[in-house]
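Is it possible to get an amino acid sequence alongside its tokenized fold?
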Amino acid sequence: MTVMATPETTTLRRTTAYAGLAAFALLLAGQGLIQVGGAEPPFDAPMARTLDFFTTRDETLFAIGAYLSVLSVVAMLWFFGGVYALLKEDWRAMVALVSGVVYVAGTISVDWELAAFRAAEGLDPEISRLVFDMGNLGFASAWVALGSFALATGWVLIGSPRWPDWLGWWAIAAGVCLVAARAVWTNQVWLVGYFLFWVWAVVLCVRLLRRPYSVG
């Protein structure tokens, strides 16, 4: 049975959806600008490639891209908070929220931007490799928190009369992939879980916008 939502619930659903879609759009835009000058090398790239990556960045576009990436993380915080508010009757929603906050804290890093900002003055190859690795490993560790958010959220959705089970299983699949990817963090397999998560998030946001007047 569909239950009509209050105006407050409608606002919450829309805000959560817009925050999630904004996070996705800002992430794409930010990463696109960061890649100007050549795509970033793989996590296990040799030192020469990491140095080349920082020295070939467009200083202005890279700075804008980094800024948009930070805004994306802030939008994700709003998204995580909205999901918690929608599911807060279940104790697992709190686990999801805390996991989301940990993910946000783990992805805000200035290492790459500082290296690119100082590249014109001369960047030591070993320092460039350290900065590159620190940024990537920090991001990889954050996958576990993002995976935890997806697992907890998916667990709540499964069996809930307000949400379709497939949406919950999708989130769990993404969560498992993200958590497992940390064990082999230099392998490109991490893209599977990351892709699954973001497509799931977009689908969830679209569903929230298409059904703003009902809880079910």
